[in-house]
Amino acid sequence: MTEARTAIVTGAARGIGAAVAARLASDGMKVAIVDLDQDACASTVDTITAAGGTALAVGADVSDAAAVDAAVARIADELGAPTVLINNAGILRDNLLFKMTVEDWDLVMGVHLRGAFNMAKAAQKFMVEAKFGRIVNLSSTSALGNRGQANYSAAKAGMQGLTKTLAIELGKFGVTSNAIAPGFIVTDMTAATAERVGVPFDDFIKFSAEQIPVARVGQPEDIANTASFLVSEGAGFVSGQVIYVAGGPKD
Known about the structure:
It is a single chain. With 251 residues, this protein is α/β, with parallel strands linked by helices. The chain has a single domain (6-185, 219-245), classed as Rossmann fold, CATH 3.40.50. 46% of the residues lie in helices and 16% in strands. The protein has eight helices and seven strands; from the N terminus they run E-H-E-H-E-H-E-H-E-H-E-H-H-H-E. A seven-stranded parallel beta sheet has the order 3-2-1-4-5-6-7, sandwiched between helices. Strand 4, helix 4 (102-130) and strand 5 (133-138) form a beta-alpha-beta unit. Helix 1 packs across helix 8 (220-230) and helix 3 packs parallel to helix 4. It starts with 5 loop residues before the first strand and ends in a 6-residue tail after the last strand.
């Protein structure tokens, strides 16, 4: 019997990250649940273990290279060499350009973009050694531009460039790199966006669904399903792609 692969999912205490982690565990992987606060990971770990899976809670600031190196070393020691990485950690600091502070810019860039770089750099050596690896970076439809999100949009566009470059550099080692760009997904982050624009969340969902070709908003499980395919054995010829999971086409 082939030993279960070890996957790392960042920002997995809740929302999309938690759903992806649960799906990968149900696919038979051992999953490291990484978030800034290790205690916040308990719910995701409990969900996975209650279903018979294996999960490990790991606290780390992904924007801190030393913290990431220590976290990945611990994961390799306790769960096994990680060969699947989902870079999902993210924060919002939305504001119009003239109100956005340098700190707001740096925080968002640090968690999303530097975090993905730190995690990929730390994990790739295990993938190269195993001659198998799957990296999935969470981008967003906001990468195409979104009012009030100069920092977030730039970070998510950067994730796409990082994704394609990792695909080029690591492909010969059996490592694929792809990005998922979600559209409207019901999470705490979209609830925060509704609050920022002053619209009740239920109204925000209803309005958004009316603009989406499939006539509904997305759920975290929609992203988890796509991630499950991209990290599978069967997705070995899919690399360097950005898949918009948004209920319709995006430019």
